[in-house]
Amino acid sequence: MEALRIKAVRKKFGPLEVLKGISLDLEEGDFLVLLGPSGCGKSTLLALIAGLEDITAGEIHIGDVIANDLHPRDRNIAMVFQSYALYPSMTVHANMAFGLKMRGVSTADQDEAVKRVADMLDIGHLLERKPGQLSGGQRQRVAMGRALVRDPMLFLFDEPLSNLDAKLRVQMRSEIKKLHNRLQTTVVYVTHDQVEAMTLATKIAVMQAGEIQQYAPPEEIYNRPANAFVAGFVGSPQMNFLPGRLERGNGDPRLRIEPANGATECTIPIGSLVESSLGNGEEVIVGIRPESIRPAGSSSTFTFDAAIELVEMTGADTLATFILGGHEMMARLPAEEKPALGDRIGLSFDPASVHLFDRHTTVRLN
Ligand SMILES: Nc1ncnc2c1ncn2[C@@H]1O[C@H](COP(=O)(O)OP(=O)(O)OP(=O)(O)O)[C@@H](O)[C@H]1O
Ligand SMILES: [Mg+2]
Q1: Is residue 138 included in any domain, yes or no?
Q2: Domain that holds residue 77
Q3: Cα angle at 348 between 343 and 352, to 5 degrees?
Q4: CATH code of 155's domain
């Protein structure tokens, strides 16, 4: 069953249109991540789903009802914010039971629901404390617990982990994932952290300036980004982009990289990578992920020499900045590779891993 259907939704604040026709469908049990840069409209879309803001145009269906004019209270959703919005003077137990109490649930049933969820989140021993006596991670759990006791149709999360330190974030991320695997609830989760998006989502909607750029499962977003924006936004370090031209002479098609800064030209044979509909001389953006670039001598087929401009060791791998055709690029190499600054080293990549985008529309071509 469809848990959520958003149809051509627009939102204006005065003259400013911040959502420009958003459509997406979500199956029951899906974990949708809204991913995009600051200000692209993620929280606004969440607020429309929650009923905290009015919709300017379009429809939102939750389950099988049109929710446009439903009061937030009647939407059967639970929300977890970045600021956990716990009541400071109430105990953890009272915070978690608050929504149930407001709905007239009996004290016995409140206690049972709080206990069940507290056990699940491992906060049973904290129930008599006040929020001020908790760590950030514990507060985060309580905020989640407060949403979970309600057993709603839809969970909405707005950057729930952004106040936590890096280690706790990773830990809580895994816990949210486990919880979702177990409960199979339907979730809409806002973040601008692409690792969170990739690891948690069953589907990602990449947003930019009030529009969805791509709506697809995480693997597809990563492997087949729909345009250069998505390609550049997802993946870290970012995908390398080079201006190129498609050359179809006799023999296999090639990509001629347009040199910058007086560098020598470089051509990449690309075999069957492109559709035959792409014409000779077509101007493209060539996208190569840093992790697609390997030391020369591995099985990758296109090999070249490059001067190393910068070496950054992360521990797990070596990030090497180099110049190709006058363009600065980055390779993510195995940690054993430790090139020195100024070295010329052999690098390679498989032409099949190249992403091609239209230079003018930036839409994916291959
Ligand atoms: N109540 C409001 N009145 C006017 N403009 C608003 C209002 N709320 C949000 N906006 C504007 O709408 C745009 C989208 O804001 P929104 O909060 O949805 O972005 P976001 O994607 O959640 O960003 P962030 O990642 O920074 O949280 C922004 O330009 C913002 O300034
Ligand atoms: Mg926001």
Answers
A1: yes
A2: 2-233
A3: 155
A4: 3.40.50.300
pLDDT of 286 > 80? The answer is yes
Residue type, 155: F
> What is the layout of strands, in order, in the sheet containing 266-269?
266-269, 254-257, 240-247, 283-288, 355-358
Nearest by Cα to 25 from 10, 4, 55, 1: 4
DSSP character for 238? P
| Res. 79 pLDDT band, cuts 50 70 90 | confident
Q: Judge whether 314 lies within some domain.
A: yes
DSSP state of 172: H
The one-letter amino acid at 108: A
- From 171, 202, 233, the end of a domain falls on 233
| 331 within 8 A of 304, measured Cβ to Cβ | no
Residues 285 and 174 in one domain: no
Residue nearest to atom 18 of ligand 1 (CA): 41
* Ligand 1: residue whose CA is nearest its atom 6: 13
Atom of ligand 1 nearest to the CA of 47: 18
Q: How far is the CA of 190 from the centre of ligand 1 (A)?
A: 13
DSSP letter at 69 equals: T
Angle subtended by helix axes 136-148 and 107-121, to nearest 10: 130
- Report residue 221: phi and psi, to 5°: -60, -40
Q: Report the predicted TM-score, pTM, of the whole model to 2 decimal places.
A: 0.91
Which of 11, 13, 46 is the best mutation target for the ligand 1 pocket, counting ligand atoms within 8 Å of the beta carbon and taking the most? 13
Total tally of structural domains belonging to the chain: 2
Q: How far is the CA of 334 from the centre of ligand 2 (A)?
A: 36
Task: Evaluate whether residue 134 is within a structural domain.
Answer: yes
228 and 273 within one domain: no
> First and final CA of the chain: distance in angstroms?
33
The binding-site residues of ligand 1, defined as CB within 6 angstroms of any ligand atom, are: 13, 16, 18, 36, 38-44, 192
Q: What is the dihedral of CA 58, 63, 64, 67, to 10 degrees?
A: -40
User: Would you say 263 and 325 are in contact if contact means Cβ atoms under 8 Å apart?
Assistant: yes
Look at residue 6 and tell me if it is in a domain.
yes
Q: Compute the radius of gyration of the chain from its Cα atoms.
A: 25
pLDDT in tens, 323-357: 998 999 999 999 999 999 999 999 999 988 999 99
